[in-house]
Model the fold of this input.
Amino acid sequence: MDDNFLQSEMWRKFQASVGRKVFFIGDNNISASIIEHNLPVAGRYFYIPRWPSARISNSQFLISNKIPNSNDQISKIFSEVISLAKENNIGWIRIDPENEKILELVKDLRIEKAPHDMQPKENFVMSITKTEEELLAGMKEKTRYNIKLSQKRGVSVKVISNSKFLISNQTSNSNDQNFKNYAEEFIKLIKITSQRKGIKSHPENYYRKMLETIPRENLKLYLAEYQNATIAGILVIYFGKTATYLHGASSDEFRNVMAPYLLQWQAIQDAKKAGMEKYDFGGISTNYELNTNIRTTSSWAGITKFKIGFSPETKSTEFPGSYDIVINPFKYALYRALQKIKSLI
Done:
């Protein structure tokens, strides 16, 4: 099964809930979930996250010239996507090829390297098929120490969904107001973290809609509490056999109790119990490169060190980055010119 939740129906529904037009093209073998974005002046473009990839009937991702008809499938769906873009007066189509082989398949089209990547170029995904004891033993000593420190200091973890919340694996009823309160606590933490790190977060309603729209079996909100205060939180999505860490935030207070370490460890344990085989920490940069215009080199260093500490023997996955298929040369030239002016400012 495809573990790419960004190409799933639930993600399309979520994107539609925040006001974006979405499209779906394809069948059980190969498909595309398309999100329409609208920019001031430059106009509209399609974005197809973590695509193209081919889902062959045996559920393996296999694209190469050796696979019968794979290129025919690719050509057919690209023709459909491009036709849809032209029908909707779209300026360009942004894609995130899975690997260099797949990128080669689209080189015959007019493509340009995007001015910035929509998704991290380097992802850190660890296997969680080992026992909990083995997972702990495989962590860096400092990571293991910080988890135990957080437990010793008395940090507690709540796991909240859109209809109930779990405390220490015990289920209790929760009304809508409780859920909204927890959601607002997390949004407050997002704002605090964004200000502290100097990064631009999504609009507040983005997180509200995510929590309201994505089914509770797929999305978990973890909140860490200490001395009657909510001090950290993470959002984790389940899809296929992978649990993915989507967003995280923490307060400026009580950072010495290491709550983010305990939150991640609780999420890993829960994912394992739910039958997940992998835990995707999301983006890192092992070279601490400046991959986007909203993160600093030092922030990549801290994020990378934190995530790798949970499985230092795991190798990261690298992607080619985002590329644009030019549909309307004038609109695309205008967009690139505006991007250049923005970067100079």
Q: What stands out?
A: The longest strand covers residues 229-239.
